[in-house]
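Escalation from tier 1.

The customer reports that the assembly of two entities below gives different structure tokens on two consecutive runs. Tier 1 could not reproduce it. I'm attaching the input and our single run for tier 2 to review.
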Amino acid sequence: MEHAEAAGHAVHAVVMDSTFYMACGIFFVALALIISEKIHKTIVALFGASLVLVLKILEQHEAFHLEEFGIDWNVIFLLIGMMTIINIMRPTGLFEYIAIRSAKAGRGEPLRIMIIFAIITAVLSALLDNVTTVLLLAPVTLLIADALEVDPIPYLIVEAIASNIGGTATLIGDPPNIMIASKAKLSFMDFVIHLTPAVIFMMFVLVLILKLVFGKRLKTRDELKERIMQMDEREAIKDPVMLTKSLVVLGIVLVGFIFHGVLHYEPATIALFGAGLLLLLTGTHEPHHILAEVEWPVIFFFIGLFIMVGGLVKVGAISMMSQKMLALTHGNLFATSMVIMWFSAIASAVVDNIPYVATMNPLVIDMAKELWPGHSGMELLQHPELMPIWWSLALGACLGGNGSAIGASANVIVVGMAEKAGHKISFLKFMAYGVPIMFITVFISMIYVWVRYYILG
Amino acid sequence: MKAKDVMSPIKEYLAPGMSLCEAVTRMQGIKRTHGLPIKGMLVKDEQETVIGMVSIKDILRAVIPFYLSTDLAIFSWDNMLEEMTKRASHKIVADIMARDLVTIDADDSLMACTDLMIKKGLQRLPVTDENGDIVGMVYIRDIFDMVAEYLIKGGTNNGTC
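Tier 1 run:
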């Protein structure tokens, strides 16, 4: 209560002094540098964060230890935990096994394989992460396209798109969801209940579109299909013992996620337990190479961003933005959630959705404080009227990633792989697929949020 | 003995614009002293500057699709090698040559040559003079022949090991 009042007070007393301008200056220069890609985003974020501390916009204590201004350790350790588990699973050959098996299940039919690959990409992206999924499936896709003598480009783009859609479905599927869940204290099951149904519907629509667009275009010969049927997916399994162990641990982790809300565990606790247990089961004395493969640049990017955004929150820049947003929509929450959804989608297509969501999270919380000054804690964060706004932010930020070749890491990876294999995917080529899908999926989200939360209540 | 004492002269070069077919034809036509075709050649541009080297490994590497690097090669089909070679045939020497050449000084010792070749996995080592110009090539086979001779000579009972 005190907390809310203190923050509520700050909302109305934004002092636009030198500290205010420094915090904004650091953030927007950093954002511009990140977009320009002149300097690596992690270096920009870490240097920006160090400036926030050196210039005493935030005290170190605030940056390291306060939930309101500081690093969101829940996000950091959830990412580290999941990355560690995935790093141990990768060399077992599971992903290649699944991919070859799927191609055989498609009986070598190019369209059927495209649809099955889209679905498994979505499922794996929802349960693991998008980048790993496309990174491991893309090579198999190129192999299968060569075997069938078909153009691999549509397959690769469809996989990137499916991974962005699938990642939207769960708390762990995509970084924006991880960040939103942590800020709003939402559980894994909240995402399953509120976002997964929408995503399943989107996947149905995607499959339908693929059938319409590619139904007649993708052709191969019977003797080429035979090449797929003669592959033995069991040969892909490199380490069956480790595979079994990782599947058991992954199962425990997923069950843990399903019940973490009920058991009062934070998702990061579940992920860290899984990582610790699986590391123990590897029986290795040299965990160095497993831990070294954690994507530390991504982790440090998050750390830097959290501190820079913390600076913005402390000087009141975020409150100012949230007041503007409410003024724009005249406090109408349906309008606000629609604005947030479409703006998030467009913004995420153009810039990295991680800094975007890192900024939007405190903005949404601040808006809630303005709207319901008497509330605090969970009552405030999960106010029934605020929930559709969180879902709109998640849907917009995740699905917007399909809007351009740089909208999501998965897109960047497939474009890079295609180029290495001698198939250039131009920016416009990607957008020819991505933009329509982005509009269709965000449109579905709009209808979904409107009907589910504003019509049915 | 020094590098310059064991090096062979270089008489022919590849050009960066040659197709893989032309390069392979030229390589197959040049026989080394042991009678087998040469397995690696330097590439010279129009200004007569050496800009790279092509070995049979570079040519084979150009044929392998990059995605096979992830243990996927077990899922290949019968005539895949042939198909992929056809696909790579549009490439030219400049696309596939190694650009960072490891070289050795004409006055460097044979021990240094041998060490460098083993540590870096090289089959041939261009030898440079004091101006940095390439004046010859040391082949691993030639060094090995010397080592073999030392081993045999050093054996007991006049060459019966």
